[in-house]
Amino acid sequence: MVNNMQNNTLEMDTKIQNFFRNKKVFVTGGTGFLGKVFIEKLLRTTDVQHVYVLARAKRGTCAKDRFAKILNDPLFEKLHAVRPNPMEYITTIEGDCALTKLGISDEDRNELIEEVDVIIHCAATVRFNEPLSNATQINVAATRDILELAKKMKHLKSFVHVSSAFANCIITNAEEKFYSQHLGITSDELLNLKDKLSKEEFDAKEKELLGEFPNTYCFTKSVAEEAVQKCGNSLPICIFRPGIILAVSEDPIPGWVDNLYGPNSIVYGCGYGVLRVMYARPNQNAAYVPVDYCANVMMACAWETATSIMQKPHKEPRIYTLVPHKTNELDWGTFKNYTVEHGFKMPLPNMIWYPMLLFAETYYGYKLLTFLYHTLPGYLIDFVLLLMGKPTRMTKTYKKIHSQCGMLRYFLAFDFTFDMTNCYNLWDSMSTEDRKLYNFDMAKLDWNKYFYFNIQGMRRFVAKEDPETIPQGKKMLKIFRTLNIIVHGLFIAGMAWLVWGLLKFIFL
């Protein structure tokens, strides 16, 4: 139909494919998780003419060589079957969102102005504890710089700015609209303040500037939306707000993942046996979305922005939100059950303890359980390592885990809901062929199947374990299951002995 893999040829005649035919696309964040999936889908399923990728040199490797190495990832295997040398269609633009004007040379800037038809801006720092100065530069200043660059582009037809469903997390029932009135500051004012103050002085104002926002990531992503609202109203631009992005669901490789951010670290930590307690409410919704669905929305809303929205000018850029469908929601309890269930089917051979995950619904319950299941075992393991003459590690590891969990607490304290009207309408406007090729129908996502592949992908792509090690993992699982029962039995017996001794002391 659309993609004939047997003959290594492309037959492209859907509306979205026709839009991207012979287009030149500029992508920021192309070396990141979402960016890589988007570029793969773009090159494999459309007859796009060229892709410009903003990338920085890293560890002595130039941007071009760095991206050429990225293309060797298993994610791009299907792409190589269609386009044997994908680098022929890619130009790396050396730059960095942490630098003024994206760090792009005048020569490259002029080429982008003359050639680019579509912009996909998904570069961002996603660290919750990023210093305010860094987060502002990367998430706000870079967005404003690319907006100014876009205004000069001679053939620009569509601009997709990737934000987050939690960019406006101080609103627990978020609609697909702007919430700039809750910021207390505009993007221009924030950037002017940053320019006037030293890095240390600006970072010292974090608490004052953030107000009700829980971290610098959400705050700066919200300010970046204000920049789009203010500076992008003359551009063919839209905003995409994805939920928490997880592994590939379907295409090109079910379960593909390349990082341990957010929930991915929970899945891996649980399977490894190091994460045993989490602050969460089982019945609370988890706004997870597959990364390939996000890439597909980006393809679709780029098409709609160019072909429909610009024919009917709006006062403000349209916003598309992708989170679980209200008829197919996922809660933390189900997430935990799938993680443990499928983790038992494919256990890691190098686990350090029996995989388990307890939910604490109160702060003090969380502190008690982490003391029993994290802190005490951490000190015991480090004591044994010390006796063996090896460097200690577990207490430091648990401090990092608890710090990360602490940053998530805000998002587990509220039950967030999101309006998805524009995203639903976008889906309805797509042809049957486009829906098959660029699927993001969250109503029909099989969560059980999804997490099976998620665990499988985590094992293969992050832990670097072959399927052949599953039997070894199952042997280790049996051993640790027995040890876990023994330890819990000894603990219960010890507590009973202490209580009995205390009662004897009081009453006898």
Describe the largest sheet: 7 strands, parallel
Strand content: 5-15%
Mean pLDDT level: 90
- List the quaternary state of the chains: single chain
Strand order of the largest sheet: 5-4-3-6-7-9-13
What is the CA-based Rg, rounded? 25 Å
Helix content: 40-55%
Per DSSP, the total helix count is: 19
* Strands, count: 15
**Through-space gap between termini:** 84 Å
Uncertain stretches? 1-9
What structural class should be given to the helix and strand makeup? alpha/beta
Q: What form results from the Cα inertia axes?
A: globular
Question: Nutshell version of this structure?
Answer:
The chain has helices at residues 15-20, 33-45, 63-70, 77-82, 106-115, 132-152, 187-196, 199-204, 206-210, 216-231, 263-272, 291-307, 332-345, 363-387, 394-413, 421-429, 432-437, 447-462, 470-507, and strands at 3-4, 9-10, 24-28, 50-55, 90-94, 118-121, 158-162, 173-174, 237-242, 244-246, 277-279, 288-290, 318-322, 358-360, 417-418. By secondary structure, it is α/β, with parallel strands linked by helices.
